[in-house]
Design brief:
alpha/beta, eleven-stranded mixed sheet, binds pyridoxal-5'-phosphate
Length: about 375
């Protein structure tokens, strides 16, 4: 790694990202709108290169969590629809208008402010009305009052009710009972809207879990996130039903390999003490880079020279230690695979997530923070954005 100024990096395989969006397209069929979710810097993969690859390979639109994420994409030149999945404060109406971003609304006042901002610029702003069918996060309750408020929004002068939006709480669980209850509430709510003369427009509901396993929840537009990045949304989905390829690898070079006697304590708190004469390797990646500290002492491992090597002692902010005693021909400078594969051995973000008592989503976001990113494809060419 020449130009990252650091012996640790993240590799993003854009061919695999392209493969995964094509899989989503195959799964939902040609008629659906696919909104590629690139929030949180594309789950740590880099929003701009990810968005470009997604749009070139089957996505129709993009979604982000925050206004600044949307602005970043507009400034990078993307002209497709960009949906802001979180709620946007009324005071940012003019910013939404300026960058032509599509908000989700859950209040008439909020929509009214956006209508005023659009009117001031002589424009019309598309909005999705959020309906809370069971996530308990954002949206109108799917009742008569909720329908009346959506009707008010639909009648505002300078916003167009583009569609209705909801979100699954449990689509990635084996038991689909609650997901189906959410669908029933959504359908009833859409009918209620129609009964009072409001066209619900584009219906969008499905995240990765629902794209994989709740086909009746696909509606008009689907919103895949984690599956694009090659991680399954949970351990309960049927992995064999849809092939996905991991996009992110995390790699480093050993900065030191040291022979130490039996009885040598390793890292903060001396939670690990060598039981034999050992070779200890230093990996220049820590929890500030996304390697969860919670993994300490939980049996985590890395891949070096074709074999797994155990992580020992506590993960520090910028480094962690591995026992390389059983690794053949090991020297400082050898490559360490923290997430990824050498063709034989594989460590998935899911594995680290499970050991740290979290999910692959959080692991990917974490590794995306500070490590330099290198973009690759299956020809092993590397280039920088
Ligand atoms: C993050 C998010 C998604 C994507 O979810 P995945 O589980 O990553 O597929 C879709 N919709 C909304 C509203 C989200 O916040």
């Amino acid at each position: 790694m020449q130009d990252t100024l650091r012996s640790a990096w993240v590799e993003i395989n854009l061919d695999n990202l392209a493969f995964n969006i094509q899989k989503v397209r195959e799964k939902v069929g040609p008629e659906k709108t696919v909104i590629g979710v690139v929030k949180a810097d594309a789950y740590g993969h880099g929003a701009v290169p990810a968005a470009k690859t997604l749009l070139e390979n089957g996505a129709d639109a993009l979604a982000v969590a925050t206004l600044s994420e949307g602005i970043e994409l507009r400034k990078a030149g993307f002209t497709c629809e960009i949906v802001i999945l979180g709620l946007t404060a009324s005071r940012y109406g003019t910013v939404l208008v300026e960058y032509d971003l599509t908000p989700v609304v859950a209040s008439v006042d909020n929509a009214y402010a956006f209508s005023r901002a659009a009117a001031a610029a002589n424009k019309f702003m598309p909005v999705y009305a959020a309906v809370d069918t069971g996530m308990g996060r954002i949206g109108f309750l799917p009742d008569q009052r909720g329908a009346e408020m959506v009707a008010k929004i639909a009648k505002l002068g300078n916003v167009n009710l583009k569609g209705v939006f909801s979100h699954f709480a449990t689509a990635d669980e084996a038991d689909k009972t609650f997901a189906k209850e959410q669908i029933k509430k959504f359908d009833d709510f859409c009918k209620l809207l129609e009964s009072i003369g409001i066209d619900p427009g584009v219906k969008t509901f499905a995240n990765s879990g629902a794209i994989m396993e709740v086909p009746e929840g696909h509606y008009d537009a689907v919103r895949p996130g984690i599956m694009l990045y090659g991680c399954y949304p949970s351990n309960e989905v049927d992995r064999d039903a849809l092939e996905l390829k991991p996009v992110m690898s995390v790699k480093a070079e050993l900065t030191q390999v040291k022979k130490v006697p039996a009885g040598t304590p390793i890292s903060y708190g001396r939670t690990f003490v060598t039981e034999r004469e050992s070779f200890i390797g230093t990996v220049p990646v820590g929890y500030a880079d996304g390697m969860p500290r919670a993994i300490s002492g939980k049996g985590g491992r890395v891949i070096i020279n074709g074999v797994y090597a155990p992580i020992v002692g506590r993960v520090c902010m910028d480094q962690f230690l591995v026992d390389v005693t059983d690794v053949p021909d090991v020297f400082a400078g050898d490559e360490v695979i923290i997430v990824g594969t050498d063709g034989e051995n594989t460590i998935l973000a899911e594995e680290i997530g499970a050991l740290a008592d979290t999910i692959s989503y959080e692991i990917c976001c974490g590794f995306g923070q500070r490590l330099p990113k290198v973009y690759t494809d299956n020809e092993e060419d590397e280039w920088d954005f």
